[in-house]
Hints:
By secondary structure, the chain is mainly α. It has helices at about 5-15, 20-30, 35-40, 50-60, 60-70. The mean pLDDT is about 95.
Amino acid sequence: MTLQEKVGKTIIQLRKEQGLSQETFAFEAGIDRRYMSDIENGKRNISLDILERVCQKLGIKISELFVVVEKINE
Length: 74
């Protein structure tokens, strides 16, 4: 699994824990829903700006996101 796929999988997991649909999450984070879908599916190389928005919406620090990413087994 690539890093992009691990980040996407982590975002999905954290978003679902908050009970948010992808569409609602993307709208509230100011990200196009299709772009959010590509991020979650590991098809986009996410920019730092978008990563910051995602983490803000999730209520976590960027470093906390990567702690979860590193725990994913391939």
